[in-house]
Specification:
82 residues, mainly alpha
């Protein structure tokens, strides 16, 4: 059974906070993240009720009739400005 790598991007501020947290707790970044992930998987998800999505029901589309536009300009329409 092999290991997989999980990665994410953090802003400079977030990374600084993470380093400070690791320094205060005595863990490396890797060990702290692994502990947090495993604790969340073991404790949090099993106790939470994760809602299942409702099935998508495709409804019939309503066809809207649009009026036909006048395609030709008659001579008397050319200079009518309102």
């Amino acid at each position: 059974m092999g290991s997989k790598v999980v990665s994410t991007k953090l802003s400079e501020e977030e990374y600084g906070k993470l380093v400070g947290l690791c320094s205060a707790s005595g863990y490396t970044i890797s060990k702290l993240l692994k502990r947090a992930i495993l604790e969340r998987m073991n404790d949090g998800v099993s106790q939470e009720q994760v809602p299942t999505p409702k099935p998508f029901k495709r409804e019939e589309l309503e066809v809207i009739q649009t009026p036909q536009l006048k395609t030709t300009i008659e001579s008397e329409d050319k200079f009518q400005y309102y």
